[in-house]
Design brief:
Elements lengths: L17 H132 L1 H6 L8 H4 L3
Amino acid sequence: MPTMSLLGSGSSNASSNPESHHFMANEAKADQRNLDHAIKDLNTAEKLHSKSVKATEKANSAIDKAVKKEHSAAQALNKAEHKLDAAVADQKNARKTLETDRQHETQLGADVQQRRSTMEEMQQRKVTNDQTRESTLAQLHQQAADRLASPDRETLSPTTTQPDTDAVGTT
């Protein structure tokens, strides 16, 4: 079968032509360069793919960490909200207790004032009664002294009566 040379005439002795050898050598070099370039491109693509796989794994790991962090933050938020709710309830209860204590204090203050007023009235009544008793006792002592000082008067005036001894201690 006759081979046709790309550069030359259509002779059957193409392999003996130095131009054919040169052309084929160039063609082989070009094929090798193309193959080397394709291998290099493949290696670059594989490295890029490997980096992409690692980046995807890293992104998945970052997502997992972010999800854990979100979960932890949500728990902390729930705990903080619970603490806040408890603090608000404690404050509300403390305000109620304060109001109750203030009302109780006001009531007790009024009771103390009423008792003080009652005590002052009783104290004044006692002072008045003590003065009345002292005056009555002084009169009784004076009457007794007068009777002892003038025994003649009793004999002269039969209408004078003796003081009732039962009435002395009852006033």
